């Protein structure tokens, strides 16, 4: 049968039964989407306002030719549904929705447009930006052209859903459930990390299989991270305006489907193979002890505003799926800066997002989510609120509430900056950590008080709401902005490659070029730039909370000053595996820092510091020192010109326990940050006769310090703009014949303080 309209026409006389070579049954309203079984496929799609819904089927061999058009005669609870017996996997499909065309009232039903199923599990094809993809005559000069219906058929130019068999052998795989406070996140791009790897076969580069390749796994394990945070892997759309410029959407923040893995990242095929390849990747990463966190974009879709294309939800039920201007529904509320905002106030849109999250956990085995522009999802009717339906629903869900939940706690709407305002269960990208760490090491006259909060898990943001340090996802750089190397190579953004006349991207970066804009052969400037990178990496990994390293910062990746490389799907954004000697040294330094953090629980505590004496400890769990070795005074804290700070972390005074109830203890560490542009003498605390400090980290050099002792109560010369980490040692002379300490480590520090006070 090739007459695509014959079945729908015949159904007007007989709704169900056999129509030549295909049979149609009523089906069921749940589950939504295309659900395959050996008996056939059930199709179900929500639309509250449509008056009719047609299912369109396309053969694998001719995906742009509509083979069957079937009227879905049943509507139950606003869900249209039918069942096609004996239909095999691999068929492509979409819907056509009938109803009122009245853009001024928010209704955009146009049966000429093929619509992607919001619940499809796989997508085939690439959008051809033909005018037919738009619901209105795009070539018209009329500024109100979006009010006129376009009657061209979009089916030949649009992507289609794919019917798949979800069966998969997970071989006993389960989520790893790495405790959040022990997590080290590596924010990365599936294609970017693997595209240039010399040990990955060319056909696997840039794919899920490439990420699961032994060479990639070995690199991530050697680095020491515990979780990869994948930039968007929901199937996304290549923007027409970028294609016209010869560019591509690299980041992927332009979702078309909330269930389907992005097909371009699959090496194995597009007829459902991309789903299997994604599952293979997750299973392989789990076997290596690496968690998988997805960066998810539920706040908007690729359909844009009233001038945007019609791809799916806009044509299925515009008012249900999108936030419209209340008194002028031809326009969209734009809290995202992309043209539209998903309508999380509507119960079916909320269900779509919740079903998607549950699917990625239960069927795809991911370990958590980072929510792009999460404030847009948490908005009630007007404001961002802790009591929003979205947050409440997640907290009550027995599956989603148990995975890692990370918010990007802002959007572009009024009141959208909500750092510190999300409730328990949530961690947040701590934008204040980024800003304070950058400002401190840049040498801005802000003093050390803010930096002290960031070093200790940002208790000023999270403690009062009942959260713990792991609520703070600490980062200095991320995909959006300068790389760490560029942060100290450029004062200004250099985004000309984006072809927007350098207007795009953030202007306020707290960056510093160290004296020369861009690349230079000056050895002293290059040494300083490397030192600044080491400072930030050390600060990040010795701070309480959860560190997030941006892909490539561990070796000094550059984007040549581009701080908005969203459209640079090329070596500007990709990971470069050909390193210089300095880059190898920076990588080794980062790996060493991660190891120190992992092996010493005092650097990743579950609870905030109390400052109180605990158990048998004679000093508190933390102590702050000024360069003279004295405890910090109020005058020190309030001095905006103070740029040097010492922090003693008392591992013997930790009030924490392991999973078996055994108290956790660690060594005592001294971390000193010197953001001055010149050297500073810092008196090491302790009792000279007994106390020795072992230097573990010295960012003034790329070398790992050699074993050696430093005497307490004597000045130590800090290099300019440098960070130092010491571990307290106990000399053999401080033990009696029975091997017991004459003076405990904490008593050494306490006695020094007593001498100071006297």
Automatic annotation (TrEMBL):
Compositionally biased region (Basic and acidic residues): 497-509
Hydrolase as UniProt keyword: yes
Single Gene Ontology BP annotation: glycogen catabolic process
Region (Disordered) residue spans: 497-518
Keyword terms, alphabetized: Glycosidase, Hydrolase
SMART domains named among the record's database cross-references: Aamy (SM00642)
Sample GO molecular function, one term: amylo-alpha-1,6-glucosidase activity
InterPro entries in alphabetical order: GH, GH13_cat_dom, GlgX_Isoamylase_N_E_set, Glyco_hydro_13_N, Glyco_hydro_b, Glycogen_debranch_GlgX, Ig-like_fold, Ig_E-set
Keyword field contains Heme: no
Gene3D superfamilies recorded: Glycosidases, Golgi alpha-mannosidase II, Immunoglobulins
Domain Glycosyl hydrolase family 13 catalytic: 187-597
Family of this protein: Belongs to the glycosyl hydrolase 13 family.
Name of the protein this chain belongs to: Isoamylase
Species the sequence originates in: Neolewinella xylanilytica
């Amino acid at each position: 049968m090739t007459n695509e309209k014959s079945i729908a026409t015949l159904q007007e006389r007989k709704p169900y039964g056999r129509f030549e070579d295909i049979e149609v049954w009523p089906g069921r309203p749940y589950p939504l989407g295309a659900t395959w079984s050996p008996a056939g496929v059930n199709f179900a799609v929500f639309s509250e306002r449509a008056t009719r819904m047609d299912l369109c089927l396309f053969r694998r061999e001719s995906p742009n030719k509509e083979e069957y058009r079937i009227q879905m005669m049943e509507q139950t609870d606003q869900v249209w549904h039918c069942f096609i017996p004996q239909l095999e996997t691999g068929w492509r499909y979409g819907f056509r929705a009938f109803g009122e065309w009245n853009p001024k009232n928010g209704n955009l039903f146009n049966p000429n447009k093929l619509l992607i199923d919001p619940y499809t599990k796989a997508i085939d094809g690439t959008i051809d930006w033909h005018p037919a993809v738009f619901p209105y005559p795009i070539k018209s000069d009329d500024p109100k052209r979006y009010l006129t219906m376009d009657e061209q058929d979009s089916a030949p130019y649009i992507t289609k859903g794919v019917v798949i068999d979800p069966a998969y052998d997970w071989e006993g795989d389960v989520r790893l459930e790495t405790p959040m406070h022990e997590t080290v996140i590596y924010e990365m791009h599936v294609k970017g990390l693997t595209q240039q790897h010399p040990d990955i076969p060319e056909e696997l580069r840039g794919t899920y299989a490439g990420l699961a390749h032994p060479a990639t796994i070995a690199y991530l394990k050697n680095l020491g991270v515990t979780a990869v945070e994948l930039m968007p892997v929901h199937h996304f759309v290549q923007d027409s305006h970028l294609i016209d410029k010869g560019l591509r959407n690299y980041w992927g923040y332009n979702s078309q489907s909330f269930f389907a893995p992005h097909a371009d990242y699959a090496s194995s095929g597009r007829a459902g193979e991309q789903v299997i390849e994604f599952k293979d990747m997750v299973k392989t990463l789990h076997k290596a002890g690496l968690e998988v966190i997805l960066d998810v974009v539920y706040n908007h879709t690729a359909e844009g505003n009233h001038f945007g294309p019609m791809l799916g939800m806009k044509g299925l039920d515009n008012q249900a799926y999108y936030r419209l201007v209340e008194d002028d529904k031809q326009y969209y509320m734009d809290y995202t800066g992309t043209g539209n905002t998903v309508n999380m106030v509507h119960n079916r849109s909320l269900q779509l997002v919740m079903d998607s999250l549950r699917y990625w956990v239960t069927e795809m085995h991911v370990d958590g989510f980072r929510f792009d522009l999460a404030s847009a999802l948490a908005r009630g009717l007007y404001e961002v609120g802790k009591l929003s339906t979205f947050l409440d629903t997640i907290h009550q869900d027995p599956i989603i509430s148990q995975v890692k939940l990370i918010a990007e706690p802002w959007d572009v709407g009024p009141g959208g900056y909500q750092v510190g305002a999300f409730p328990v269960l949530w961690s947040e990208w701590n934008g204040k950590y980024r800003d304070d760490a950058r400002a401190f090491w840049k040498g801005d006259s802000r003093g050390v008080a803010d930096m002290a909060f960031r070093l200790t898990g940002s208790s000023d943001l999270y403690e009062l709401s009942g959260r713990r340090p792991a609520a703070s996802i600490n980062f200095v750089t991320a995909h959006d902005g300068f790389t760490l190397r560029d942060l100290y190579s450029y004062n200004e953004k250099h985004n000309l490659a984006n072809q927007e006349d350098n207007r795009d991207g953030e202007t306020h970066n707290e960056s510093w070029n160290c004296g020369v804009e861009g690349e230079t052969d000056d050895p002293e400037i290059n040494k300083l730039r490397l030192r600044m990178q080491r400072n930030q990496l050390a600060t990040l990994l010795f701070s309480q909370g959860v560190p997030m390293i941006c892909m490539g910062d561990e070796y000094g990746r550059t984007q040549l000053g581009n701080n908005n490389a969203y459209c640079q799907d090329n070596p500007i954004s990709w990971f470069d595996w050909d390193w210089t000697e300095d880059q190898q040294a920076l990588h080794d330094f980062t790996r060493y820092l991660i190891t120190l953090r992992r092996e010493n629980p005092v650097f990743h505590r579950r609870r905030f510091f109390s400052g109180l004496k605990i158990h048998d400890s004679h000093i508190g769990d933390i102590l702050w020192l000024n360069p003279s070795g004295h405890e910090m005074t109020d005058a020190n804290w309030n001095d905006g010109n103070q740029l040097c700070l010492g922090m003693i972390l008392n591992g013997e005074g930790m009030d924490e326990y392991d999973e078996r109830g055994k108290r956790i203890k660690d060594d005592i560490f001294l971390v000193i940050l010197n953001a001055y542009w010149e050297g500073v003498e810092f008196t090491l605390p302790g009792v000279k006769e007994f106390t020795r400090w072992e230097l573990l980290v010295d960012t003034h050099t790329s070398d790992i310090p050699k074993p050696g002792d430093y005497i307490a109560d004597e000045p130590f010369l800090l290099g300019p703009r440098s960070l130092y980490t010491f571990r307290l040692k106990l000399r053999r002379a401080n033990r009696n014949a029975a091997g017991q300490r004459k003076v405990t480590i904490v008593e050494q520090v306490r006695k020094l303080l007593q001498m100071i006070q006297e």
